[in-house]
Specification:
Shape: globular
Helix content: over 70%
């Protein structure tokens, strides 16, 4: 049943976002071509006559239009992703549609987990599309990639020499995993805030916003107290690991951050499930 819920939510979320995901790399490629064309026209004008000023103006207009379209698509992806994450949870579980969802033969945690998995997947795809679009734009705008690849190769070689291939590979893997888990944590934090907000008899949207701010402030205070306590209990732990092996310290840092982020996800999930199970008040 959980698989059917995930399939239903994914279909609802991706129906509008798929065209934007496809359009973003295409628009970024056109954007890069317009930049390259404008640069070429400018060089031709400088090297030849002033009669080509009209070409520069025309190229600038085209570049400006494509630029607006590119950033418009990127903003649309961001806005639509956030909107669908919020809307599918709010309308699907906290409003009229919730009457149907909670009559299904599934547990409350499965409903929340389904929304969380789909929202995380959509957020990850949107992030990858945004990064890919920027890469396409950069690679298309510049014809010579030699310096770019050389700089990237020098950076990787430096990190491997400093940390070792094993620890550097661990850092990369943990960083990618931490990014994915970070998106999930952001989703679940919003879910917990919306679940808290629906406890208000009136002004539930305002209550959700206040709950989200309160969660952020409370977690910042707890994490601050924890860091201060650790630094007082073991003031030389960072220097010890850095002096021993920088690679070990980096991997340990990513691993601890990963555990903390997973802890946050579990906490927000439990809060959301508990409120929806015991204190749900559908509109």
């Amino acid at each position: 049943m959980l698989g059917k819920l995930i399939k239903y939510d994914m279909k609802s979320m991706s129906r509008v976002l798929i065209p934007l995901w496809i359009a973003a790399p295409v628009i970024s490629f056109l954007f890069s071509l317009s930049i390259k064309g404008l640069v070429g026209v400018t060089e031709y004008t400088v090297n030849h006559t002033l009669e080509s000023q009209a070409l520069i103006q025309g190229g600038a207009v085209v570049t400006g239009i494509v630029t607006l379209i590119f950033f418009g698509v990127m903003v649309a992806i961001l806005v639509m992703t956030v909107l669908f994450v919020v809307q599918r949870f709010w309308n699907g579980l906290l409003k009229e549609e919730g009457y149907l969802m909670f009559t299904l033969p599934v547990e409350t945690w499965e409903l929340v987990l389904s929304k969380g998995i789909c929202a995380t997947a959509v957020g990850c795809v949107s992030s990858v599309v945004a990064v890919l679009s920027c890469v396409v734009m950069a690679l298309g705008a510049f014809g010579d990639y030699t310096l770019l690849w050389q700089s990237l190769g020098d950076f990787v070689s430096y990190m491997v020499r400093e940390q070792g291939i094993f620890w550097w590979s661990c850092d990369v893997a943990l960083f990618v995993l931490l990014s994915l888990v970070g998106i999930a944590e952001s989703v679940y934090r919003v879910y917990a805030a919306m679940a808290m907000g629906q406890l208000f008899e009136r002004h539930r949207v305002l209550g959700s916003c206040l709950a989200y701010i309160g969660i952020g402030v409370a977690w910042s205070m707890v994490s601050g107290i924890f860091l201060v306590s650790v630094s007082l209990a073991a003031p030389d732990w960072a220097e010890f690991f850095i002096g021993t092996n920088a690679g070990i310290f980096g991997t340990l840092y990513f691993f601890v951050m990963l555990l903390i982020t997973v802890l946050q996800i579990v906490l927000w999930h439990l809060i959301t499930v508990n409120i929806l199970s015991k204190h749900l008040n559908l509109e």
